[in-house]
UniProtKB/TrEMBL annotation:
<feature type="domain" description="SGNH hydrolase-type esterase">
    <location>
        <begin position="53"/>
        <end position="210"/>
    </location>
</feature>
<protein>
    <submittedName>
        <fullName>Arylesterase</fullName>
    </submittedName>
</protein>
<dbReference type="GO" id="GO:0004622">
    <property type="term" value="F:phosphatidylcholine lysophospholipase activity"/>
</dbReference>
<dbReference type="InterPro" id="IPR036514">
    <property type="entry name" value="SGNH_hydro_sf"/>
</dbReference>
<dbReference type="InterPro" id="IPR051532">
    <property type="entry name" value="Ester_Hydrolysis_Enzymes"/>
</dbReference>
<dbReference type="Pfam" id="PF13472">
    <property type="entry name" value="Lipase_GDSL_2"/>
</dbReference>
<dbReference type="InterPro" id="IPR013830">
    <property type="entry name" value="SGNH_hydro"/>
</dbReference>
Length: 234
C-alpha cells in the first residue's frame, strides 16, 4: 500500500514537472516571437521622385506667405506628377552655409534632382568669390555623388556694387556651369527685376506678384532637368 502511494506521488510530481516544463517552453517561445515581431523596421527609402531646392531668400518666399513663393507654386505643379519638392532654402543663406547643410539633406531626402540657388549673399557681403566658386563646385560634386543631377540658378548684383564685381560674380557662376556641363540660368530674376511693381520695398527682393513670372522663367529648365535624368525611384 505504501509502495503504491509512493508510486502515485512520484507520478504526480513527474506530471507536474512535465506540465511546468511545457508551459515555460510555450511562454518563452511566445515571448521570443513577440520580441521578433516588435523589432523596429528599417525606414523605407522614398518612393516618390524628389527635387531638392537649396537657396536663399529668393527661393524661401522672403517677405510673403510661403505658399506664394515660386517654389511653392512649383510644388503644386509637380505634385500632379507625383514628384515631391523639398524646399531647404533659408533667408540669408550663403554658399558656405548651404555646403554645410547639404550632406544631411542628401541623406535624409535622397533627391533625384537638386536646384542650387546660392551666391547672392556671398557677393552682397563682399566675400572672395573664389570661395563661392569652390563651395558651389563642392555642392555639385556632393549632389552627383548622391545620384542627383543639378540645375544652377545665377543672380546679378545691384548696380551700386559696380560692374567689375558683378562681372566677376557672373564669371563665377558661368565657370561652375561650364566645367560641370550643368543646366544653368545666369540671371533667373531677369524677367522681373526691372519692374518696380514686382519688387518689395527694399528694392532687392521680388514680391508675391513676381513669383509666377519667376516660375515661368525657370520651369523650362526644370522640365529639362527632370527629362534629362530619370528619377532613381521611378
Amino acid at each position: 500500500m505504501h509502495v503504491l502511494q509512493a508510486q502515485n506521488g512520484f507520478f504526480f510530481h513527474l506530471r507536474s514537472l512535465l506540465f511546468l516544463t511545457v508551459t515555460l517552453t510555450v511562454l518563452f517561445g511566445y515571448s521570443s516571437v513577440t520580441q521578433a515581431e516588435e523589432k523596429p523596421k528599417a525606414k523605407p527609402a522614398p518612393t516618390e521622385p524628389t527635387l531638392l531646392v537649396l537657396g536663399d531668400s529668393l527661393s524661401a518666399a522672403y517677405g510673403m506667405p510661403v505658399e506664394k513663393g515660386w517654389v511653392a507654386l512649383l510644388t503644386q505643379d509637380l505634385k500632379n506628377r507625383n514628384i515631391q519638392v523639398v524646399n531647404a532654402s533659408i533667408s540669408g543663406e550663403t554658399t558656405s552655409g548651404g555646403k554645410s547643410r547639404l550632406p544631411a539633406l542628401l541623406k535624409q531626402h535622397q533627391p533625384d534632382w537638386v536646384i542650387l540657388e546660392l551666391g547672392a549673399n556671398d557677393a552682397l557681403r563682399g566675400q572672395v568669390l573664389q570661395t563661392t566658386e569652390r563651395n558651389l563646385q563642392q555642392m555639385v560634386d556632393m549632389s552627383r555623388q548622391a545620384g542627383a543631377e543639378v540645375l544652377l540658378l545665377g543672380i546679378r548684383l545691384p548696380t551700386n556694387y559696380g560692374p567689375a564685381y558683378d562681372a566677376l560674380l557672373q564669371k563665377t557662376f558661368q565657370q561652375v556651369a561650364e566645367r560641370n556641363q550643368l543646366l544653368f540660368d545666369p540671371f533667373f530674376l531677369e524677367t522681373v527685376v526691372m519692374d518696380p511693381d514686382m519688387a518689395q520695398d527694399d528694392g532687392l527682393h521680388p514680391n508675391a506678384q513676381a513669383q509666377p513670372a519667376i516660375l515661368q522663367r525657370v520651369q523650362p529648365l526644370i522640365e529639362q532637368l527632370i527629362t534629362q535624368k530619370p528619377a532613381k525611384a521611378a
